[in-house]
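Order emerges. As here.
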Amino acid sequence: MTGKRQFGECTGWVLFLALSVLLITGCGKSPTPDAKNPDKDSSASSANKGNPKTFISAHEAPHEGALTPLDKMHTAHVELLAEETSGILTLFVLDKYARDAVRVQQPTILLELALEAGDTSLTLQAKESFLSGETAGDASQFEIRTPQLVGVKEFKGVLDKLTIDDVVFEKIPLSYPDGTETSSTVVDPAKP
């Protein structure tokens, strides 16, 4: 009986030590600056070489479209995605990190675009989704299909008005395909 008990105690200690080693070694390595591409030198790390108090703040468009912040504080973003072969223009309303969808309580969004063929007004309709539960008047994605955008590779324009949680954003400049999201150097007063 004592032999079985010693074997059980020994096995328990071996498992405990093995798990401890795995946890310690797994948590010891810090993540790379660019987890998707560890060989790439991120602009944040290269900016910090000269001044440890600064870092670069930039967002990426999750749908690979043109990203535009709605204000200087980057409270929220819109992303435009144009399909030049079909003439479909999609606008996504995104959070301050440009990662998550933000629903807005309006059924349409008006864009004023400057195209080579001339200026035009487009009314994008809320895209309803059974899966997400989004409906007209409670949606984060808006869309229009128009022959005016077939073959169009770039344009500038203005988003007329967008309301998010009672905050009204008006006359937001747009640029496609580049967007207006730019890297901005921010000084962090908390860093010595």
In short: Strands lie at 54-57, 66-69, 77-83, 88-94, 108-115, 118-126, 141-145, 155-164, 167-176, 184-187. The longest helix spans residues 2-28.
